[in-house]
Amino acid sequence: MANTKKKLESGQKFLNWVVMDRVGAGAFGEVYRVRGSTSQIYALKTEHCDAEHNVLMMDVTVLQDAGRQQFRHFAKIIESGRYRNDFFYLVMTLLGKSLHDLRKARKSEHFTMGTAIGSAIQTLEAIEELHRIGYLHRDIKPGNYSVGLPDRKGDLRNIYILDFGMCRRYVREDNTLRRPRSAAGFRGTPRYAALRCHMIYMIVEMTTAGIPWRRIQNMSELGEQKRRVHALEQGMLRDLFNGCPTEYGGKLPP
């Protein structure tokens, strides 16, 4: 049986990499900063071999497909594989802070109008790139986007899409659409999950920090508020788009 408690320590040699520190952890694995033989720093993601749901392999698959297209909004995959019976691993470009962390770090908890609109454009471009290689993300939220690093020219202003563990391929190998399933369980993050396929909630939050259901935990109540938005109830529309450009309201699908 795989050792689910196996972790890497700072200073430990891991294959061709030296572990610097751990920068994140989830239900099935960890994320580390590692240094390569040329002193360049990368991100190392690990996932326990006995994890109930293997999501890292989807990360690898999507990044490989995106890499062949040389897309702007995807990190580069450096190496991947299996380490003994402990975990699967992925070494990739190290990125900066997430849009969630950048927004929360501001006193107002939202971006300037120009930054919000510029970020919205780039996040939409990233989704378009993902769709072009045949995948749906299914967990679009600010925490799954990051900026680049300042020591790479022009990279700090570039936004990357991340964490493809919930992705689903929606086309076959011959590029025809797969038949939709008759039923599927919920995927995503309730706060941002849409009744239609769009990102308006995340964009509003970046612009004003004020989505009406931000403190609601009950799924039924949250869903009802979103249904009222799509029913074009004027009170809900005012609450949602207060402080936003009027053009935002035109992005709601029927």
TrEMBL record:
Domain Protein kinase: from-to ranges: 17-254
| InterPro entries listed in its UniProt record | CK1_Ser-Thr_kinase, Kinase-like_dom_sf, Prot_kinase_dom, Protein_kinase_ATP_BS
Query: A Gene Ontology MF term for this entry?
Result: ATP binding
The UniProt record gives the binding positions of ATP as 45
What's one Pfam family here? Pkinase
Q: Which UniProt keywords apply?
A: ATP-binding, Nucleotide-binding
Query: Which residue ranges does UniProt annotate as crossing the membrane?
Result: none
Nucleotide-binding listed as a keyword: yes
PANTHER family the UniProt entry points to:
CASEIN KINASE-RELATED
Protein's name in the database: Protein kinase domain-containing protein
Q: Organism source for this protein?
A: Meloidogyne hapla
